[in-house]
Specification:
The complex is a heterodimer of chains A (about 270) and B (about 190). With about 270 residues, chain A is α+β, with helices and mostly antiparallel strands. Chain A has 2 domains: about 30-95, 3-methyladenine DNA Glycosylase II, Chain A, domain 3 (Orthogonal Bundle), CATH 1.10.15; about 95-260, Alpha-Beta Plaits. Helices cover about 30% and strands about 10% of the residues of chain A. In chain A, the strands form 4 sheets. Chain A has a two-stranded antiparallel ribbon with strand order 1-4. Chain A has a two-stranded antiparallel sheet with strand order 2-3. In chain A, α2 packs antiparallel against α4 (about 75-85). Chain A is flat, with a radius of gyration of 25 Å. The relative contact order of chain A is 0.13. Chain B has one domain. Chain B has helices at about 1-15, 25-30, 35-65, 70-95, 95-100, 115-125, 130-155, 170-185. The chains are: A alpha+beta (about 270), B mainly alpha (about 190). The interface of A and B includes residues 4, 8 and 11 of A.
Chain lengths: ~270, ~190
């Protein structure tokens, strides 16, 4: 019993010593600012900045490859702190939230086949774009929920994903995760949205989902000039630069694709991380 | 002459990736770009040759004389892990770009069955030290050959109009299978 223990420990110890020496010989100088920045960051490691975690982002900021602004999760104070560590300044920016442009739950949207595969939207989307009759609809299998590091995505009882604005930090991971490209980042203060991504003509869209956008242009025509809602290819788009705010607009929409949602709390008041 | 046949066998006839199906993880994971594939090959060549040789020395010098052959697996893994750490440290200092592009696949060489497989194979075949060293180097070259061939194909395949359900891993696996089939043409070249 003693001999194998000694032998194995001996090999381990020798390797450890050798590695310690090698670590000295191959030491890489790290900028002390990198650690300071990494400490200041929220530490969620969400990947929203495009780097592999907060440590990697800190390194990128110090190298000059990334701007302190690139972290979508930081609030104003943190971004200013990070910027000051590397001697830059940041500008205030309007807070954003994610929005899932689909309301097609099982109660309103038809399915074209029964899917019995892996419980992943990416998987279902491989089979002819998913089991929904509407080719653009939310498949409800939770890829976005799993991608969210902040628990800001919930699955409604009818089987579509929905963002919880209070927890959303607009990191963009759900946007990347959705295989149908249904999720967009919109200004947090916007209240009027078109929750549909279907480009089919009226009758086809209606057949696929009762709350689909038909492209009837009623919303577009309600603005005499300076249209804030444009219909292109049978789908209405909100121009978020000049977003409409009138809740009465939602009553215009014959299917209910155009909705009014209360504005999300601004980031400074939202509790993040 | 024996050594030449051994080298041919390790590289072509019994290619570690395409005939023995070892080391598939980096084969599929690092083969999207030719430059990363070449970098990975260099790392694996270093680890495989050195690790196999050191493992041979440890087995015949330490384990067998004390009747500790059963410690073979764990001590080999210890040694391979240490080697890989060494490569990581060196790469981080000498080539940060390659280090970043290899990413997680660099420490994964530790669990690469090709490296452990090579070390164990040399023990099983009761090879001499010289044969071990040559065989391991040749095996790593074979691994590199498969990786380079595959990444060359994948780089071009990425631009092709693949059917939707085949894109990504599916077509990669199909290609790997076809490449493996083609390497079976070498069977019987060396007995």
């Amino acid at each position: 019993m003693l001999v194998p223990t000694v032998v194995l420990s001996g090999i381990g110890l020798l390797s450890g010593l050798g590695l310690a020496l090698a670590a000295r010989a191959f030491a890489v100088e790290t900028d002390p600012r990198q650690e300071k920045i990494a400490e200041a960051l929220p530490g969620a490691n969400c990947g929203g900045c495009g780097y592999a975690g907060c440590g990697d982002f800190a390194g990128a900021v110090v190298r000059g490859d990334a701007k302190p602004d690139d972290c979508p999760v930081c609030d104003q104070e943190t971004r200013r702190l990070v910027a000051s560590i590397v001697g830059l300044t940041v500008q205030d920016r309007a807070p954003q939230v994610a929005l899932i442009l689909c309301q097609g739950g099982d109660d309103v949207a038809a399915k074209k086949y029964r899917y019995n595969g892996l419980a992943s939207c990416a998987s279902a989307a491989l089979l002819g774009g998913g089991d929904k009759l509407c080719g653009a609809g939310c498949l409800g299998l939770g890829d976005c929920q799993r991608a969210c590091a902040f628990g800001a995505v919930e699955m409604t009882p009818s089987g579509v994903a929905r963002i919880i604005p209070a927890r959303c930090t607009a990191c963009g991971q759900c946007v990347a995760a959705c295989p149908k490209d249904l999720i967009k980042l919109v200004p947090a203060e916007a209240t009027i949205h078109v929750l549909c991504s279907n480009h089919d003509r009226g009758p086809a869209a209606k057949k696929a989902c009762t709350v689909a956008c038909l492209g009837c242009k009623k919303c577009e025509k309600s603005f005499a000039e300076d249209p804030r809602i444009k219909v292109a290819d049978f789908l209405a788009y909100i121009d978020y630069e000049h977003a409409p705010v009138d809740p009465a607009l939602a009553a215009l929409c014959p299917t209910g694709a155009l909705v009014y949602r209360a504005a999300a709390a601004p980031a400074a008041e939202r509790t993040s991380s | 002459m024996q050594l030449v046949l051994l080298v041919l066998s390790a590289i072509l006839v019994n290619n570690f990736v395409l005939s023995r199906f070892l080391g598939i993880c980096p084969f599929l994971g690092v083969s999207k770009k030719l430059s990363t594939a070449l970098g990975m090959t260099a790392a694996v060549m270093f680890v495989m040759t050195l690790a196999s040789t050191v493992c041979w020395l440890v087995f015949h010098g330490l384990l067998r004389p004390y009747g500790l052959e059963y410690l073979q697996t764990i001590s080999f893994i210890l040694i391979i892990a240490a080697m890989v750490q060494l490569v990581e440290l060196a790469l981080q200092k000498l080539s940060p770009g390659l280090y970043r592009s290899l990413g997680i696949y660099l420490p994964l060489i530790t669990t690469n069955c090709a490296v452990l497989g090579c070390a164990v194979m040399n023990i099983m075949n009761e090879s001499s030290l010289l044969v071990t060293a040559v065989f391991s180097l040749a095996a790593a070259v074979g691994f590199g050959l498969a990786l380079v061939l595959f990444s060359g194909i994948r780089e071009v395949l990425a631009l092709a109009d693949t059917p939707r359900s085949f894109r990504g891993t599916a077509i990669a696996l199909l290609t790997a299978g076809t490449l493996s089939l083609s390497f079976m043409g070498f069977a019987g070249l060396v007995k």
